[in-house]
Amino acid sequence: MRKLTLLLTGLILSGSLTAAVPYDHIHLTATSAQEAVDWYVKHFGGVAGSFNRGDADRVQYPTDRVFYDELSVIFFEREP
């Protein structure tokens, strides 16, 4: 019984020591990424933008995300 108590106490304490992992983006689906971006910017603020792999001077990516300081909301187009 003592071993079980120690084991359970250890599991509970170790679970409380784990740190939350920060995240920097959220993926959502919409029938139209552009309309979703426009709606989010209108109602929640933020800056509309697109993917940038460092080649934006050569490749035109569609506007499919909204930037909020350190968080991005990225929309994937999909039929309901």
Features:
glyoxalase-related enzyme like fold, four-stranded mixed beta sheet, elongated, 2 helices, single chain, alpha+beta
Give an overview in words.
By secondary structure, this protein is α+β, with helices and mostly antiparallel strands. It has one domain: glyoxalase-related enzyme like fold (2-Layer Sandwich), CATH 3.30.1900. The chain contains 2 helices and 4 strands, in the order αβαβββ. A hairpin with a 2-residue loop joins strand 3 and strand 4 (71-77). The chain is elongated and about 65 Å long. The model has no long low-confidence stretch (mean pLDDT 84).
Spell the H/E element sequence: HEHEEE
Q: What is CATH's topology name?
A: glyoxalase-related enzyme like fold
Rg from C-alpha positions?
Answer: 21 Å
Counting copies of identical and different chains, the oligomeric state is: single chain
Helical coverage, percent range:
25-40%
Average pLDDT score: 84
The tally of beta strands, per DSSP, is: 4
| Global geometry | elongated
Strand order of the largest sheet: 1-4-3-2
Number of helices: 2
The chain-level structural class is alpha+beta
Strand content: 25-35%
CATH architecture: 2-Layer Sandwich
Uncertain spans, ≥5 residues at pLDDT below 50?
A: none
